[in-house]
Specification:
This protein has six helices and eleven strands. It is α/β, with parallel strands linked by helices and 232 residues long.
Length: 232
């Protein structure tokens, strides 16, 4: 357990359909070993001693979630998500704000099953350095290229200050809710919570996270995630 006295509500946007996986169900419900991708992520969040509540935002026609054993956990609440990830996060933030407006939101991708308690605790404790909030991230290791529209290299990008954004991302519920709502109303492209904060002029902190905290996006990722979970 960290030394952080804040009330923390984990938010998991899980209303997507994961079409790139080419599967017969949303990717978060595909199996990794004995349980689903989402199940692995929820187990980690629900078991973390600093997390008071977990809110999962679901598609209105979701027929899978209530089959998960985690769906009956006393710390878990379901809300109806939206058409885009940011809409689902905002729906969960609305609920969280009514429940405890002074809480902090720990937003985590449904398709990241390999997140560890160590990284979550490290992110929570980073508030001592980044009181505005922070995200887990990993420094870019590969040489980065920028291309033109035809797929030809235009130039090599300096990777020294580039990071891969991961989740969880950790911000005050009320502030994130305000900025995310305003960004969506302004039709700003929002790819993660940090991008809404950045648009509002906030500079979130970066917390170096584990590279095995991968997002399952393509079929090949299933085997990789299975390997990482086995090693953990």
């Amino acid at each position: 357990m960290s030394n952080n006295p804040r009330s923390i509500i984990a938010i998991v946007p899980a209303a997507g359909i994961g079409s790139r996986m080419g599967a017969d169900k949303p990717k978060q419900y595909l199996m990794l070993g004995q349980q689903s991708i989402l199940g692995h992520a929820l187990d980690t969040l629900l078991a973390h001693p600093d997390i008071d509540q977990v809110i999962v935002a679901l598609h209105p026609q979701d027929n899978y979630f209530n089959q998960l054993p985690q769906s009956q956990h006393p710390k878990l609440t379901q809300v109806v998500g939206g058409g885009e990830r940011a809409d689902s996060v905002l729906a969960a933030l609305d609920y969280a704000h009514n429940y405890n407006p002074g809480a902090w939101a720990l937003v985590h991708d449904a398709a990241r099953p390999c997140v560890t308690h160590q990284d979550i605790t490290q992110l929570i404790e980073s508030v001592a350095i980044h009181p505005q909030g922070a995200i887990l991230a990993a420094p870019v290791r590969d040489t980065m290229k920028r291309s033109d529209a035809s797929g030809l290299i235009v130039h090599t990008v300096d990777r020294s200050l580039l990071w891969h954004a991961l989740t969880p991302q950790f911000f005050p519920v009320s502030i994130l809710r305000t900025h995310l709502s305003a960004a969506l109303a302004a039709q700003v492209p929002i790819t993660d919570e940090a991008s809404a904060m950045e648009w509002a002029g906030v500079m979130p902190g970066l917390v170096n996270g584990r590279m095995d905290n991968i997002k399952v996006t393509h079929p090949d990722d299933l085997q990789l995630a299975t390997l990482f979970l086995a090693q953990q």
